[in-house]
Write a structure and sequence with these properties.
Elements: E1 3-6, H1 36-54, E2 66-71, H2 77-88, E3 92-96, H3 110-118, E4 123-128, H4 133-140, E5 145-150, H5 156-170, E6 177-181, H6 188-197, E7 204-208, H7 217-225, E8 229-233, E9 244-247, H8 257-261, H9 267-274, H10 278-284, E10 289-291, H11 312-316, H12 318-332
Parallel strand pairs: 2-3, 2-4, 4-5, 6-7, 6-9, 7-8, 9-10
Antiparallel strand pairs: 1-8
Helix pairs in contact: 1-5, 1-12, 2-12, 3-4, 5-6, 5-12
């Protein structure tokens, strides 16, 4: 059974973002820190970057720039692709991927670690198990902070690379039917992606999850208010007819998932009920694209590996590096960051639709 909510898109003037004030530091902590122009700039720059690489062009615009990665949670794809992105742009990387090897084990606070690394780097990429850790870091950092995941909160750079994957594989990021499947309550990637999709016209998102794993109501209400069409379902068949199926795993590392949210279903029953296998994929159609933010843990059968409809391997690698290169180049070369210059495409004048600043909202802006 599918239930539906449809919103009315507000006027464009209501979609504005606060501009960075002169000499301010700007951060990418949430998808709410960007707007349609920002995302278009990221997608365009990522596309051009892929074309340049294909032509053998290896520009190094971030020479003498340094990225500090502070990863307090495990990561394979995000930490590696940020490193590759920075190195390919000519920069260097310092920091850690395992907090157990740092002074955090001696009681060092997040704030003190950020103060230290911001004195040695040009941008900080932070992953942390606590929602709101990015705001804490930004409050004390001398350089821009990019949120690479804050517990079950958000993951804005993942949303950007997911949009880029859709653009590359489907050909557009508007007028799409997207099925989001799985643990939508605790998965930070879907929280950011849902908001990003609301910035583009004509998208319809089908949220497929058991009741205990449904998208938080406040997140749904927000995007419906922005004009996104949203449906709810509990069975995987509701994804048939979608342009994109965005599968996710159970966030077993989040408090209460194993002991509470899964008790009524059981892990095996949950996975089997929403698993994408050969039989389902064939019913889903020949044009559908299947994505997953990774890591997968049984939700997508390995029997469809190699099927061109499964695009997560390109999503995790080629598209992830391209999108994160675009973000880093925009933050560190195009003026967003230390001098607070608004984000826009090279040559675009202020107010001509070339993009908006990647500016953090003021503390009074709820």
């Amino acid at each position: 059974m599918v239930s539906m909510t449809v919103g009315v898109r507000p006027q464009a003037a209501q979609d504005g973002r606060l501009s960075a004030s002169p000499n301010s530091i700007t951060h990418l902590l949430s998808m709410r820190d960007v707007d349609r122009g920002t995302l278009d700039s990221i997608l365009g720059k990522a596309e051009r970057g892929l074309m340049d690489m294909g032509n053998g062009a290896f520009a190094r615009p971030l020479r003498n720039k340094r990225l500090a990665k502070l990863f307090y949670e495990p990561s394979t794809r995000t930490t590696t692709t940020f490193e590759v992105a920075m190195v390919e742009l000519g920069g260097t990387v310092v920091g850690f991927s395992d907090a157990k090897t740092t002074s955090a084990m001696k009681g060092e606070s997040l704030e003190d670690a950020v103060r230290f690394y911001s004195g040695l780097s040009d941008v900080i990429v932070l992953r942390h198990p606590e929602v709101g850790a990015g705001e804490r870091a930004a409050a004390v950092s001398k350089v821009p902070v990019i949120n690479a995941g804050d517990g079950p909160g958000e993951h804005p750079t993942q949303a950007a690379l997911d949009l880029f994957t859709m653009k590359r594989e489907v050909g557009r990021v508007d007028g799409l039917r997207i099925a989001m499947v799985g643990d939508l309550k605790n998965g930070r990637t879907v929280h950011s992606l849902l908001y990003a999709l609301s910035m583009y016209e004509g998208n319809h998102v089908v949220l497929i999850a058991p009741e205990q794993f449904r998208m938080p109501p406040a997140a749904v209400e927000e995007v419906v208010g922005m004009g996104l069409r949203v449906s709810h379902a509990s069975e995987l068949d509701a994804a048939i007819g979608a342009d994109v199926i965005y599968q996710t795993r159970i966030q077993q590392e989040r408090p209460g998932v194993e002991s509470g949210q899964l008790t009524h279903l059981g892990r095996g029953a949950y996975i089997e009920s929403l698993k994408i296998d050969r039989a389902f994929l064939d019913r889903a159609g020949t044009e559908v694209k299947v994505m997953h933010p990774g890591p997968r843990n049984g939700e997508i059968s390995t029997e469809i590996d190699g099927d061109p409809r499964l695009v997560c391997f390109e999503q995790w690698t080629t598209y992830a590096v391209a999108a994160r290169k675009a973000i880093l180049e925009i933050v560190l070369r195009d003026g967003v960051g230390r001098n607070g210059t608004a984000l826009r495409e090279p040559g675009a004048s202020k107010g001509d639709g070339g993009g908006a600043p990647m500016a953090r909202r003021a503390a009074t802006d709820d």
